[in-house]
Amino acid sequence: MRALWLENQRLSLRDVPEPALQSSEALVRVLVAGVCNTDLELTRGYYPFTGIPGHEFVGEYDGRRVVGEINAACHTCNACRAGRPTHCERRTVLGIKDRNGSLAEFLALPRENLHAVPDSISTSEAVFIEPLAAALEIQEQVAMSPNDRVLVVGHGKLGRLIARTLSLTRCALTVASRGVDVPQQAFDVVVECTGNPDGFEIARRAVRPRGTIVMKSTYAGELKINASALVVDEIREPEDRRHRSDRRDLPAGQGDHGVRSRAAGGGDEGAGAMRYSRIEWPIRRSGRYASSHVSSS
To answer: Is 2-127's fold the same as 132-296's?
Structure first.
């Protein structure tokens, strides 16, 4: 089969064998694949991955269109038994860690990872299910209300999905890009999704003391932070509200990628015209999608 191959941070188009299946796995024919900024970060050395990248896809299996959760868990390690399969200590991650991805004619995933796409959703829409799930995960981690002041740093692909989903909570939502001055210590929750260290610095300055920073970026290289400022201001990172009773520490470097749960979206600082704007109410509905009035500040 034809596939895009990543090795030593270089991409090439190759003929490779179809995936060898384990008994629990399905061979999925890829119909459409998306390119995430995490894929781009892999080419810059974010993680030493060699193989076929890609994890956003719509495929065909057993005559039906499917999308897939990208973490393949062992179900036997401590994290799995504690109900955190997306943090499985022995997991593979589609197109990111020890499992070839979706930028090929075929891919392999456990059958339990697959979800059928309803006929009412087109293939071109369904390819956004994985990043949309990453955006929606924020609401599983942080409870938000109309009284919360929320800042999204970064208005690229993922940033815009996050803004659209957070607007449904009716929070006081602001979207900003890198290089724009935002009020300091003015936000209860800040979501960083630029994929750039400058974006994190904006988030750190914008969050109020005892506020929450939600990290949705992967970074190639190291992220340098002023840890003292985070400690003094008692800044929090979110915990999954589904597992609050579980306080055990996770092994270092165990990021969270998956349809139901993905902590890093790769960052996606876009080149759109909107640089610093506030999402205002009421919501205007157009067809099946909720859209909000956006006015420049």
So the answer is: no
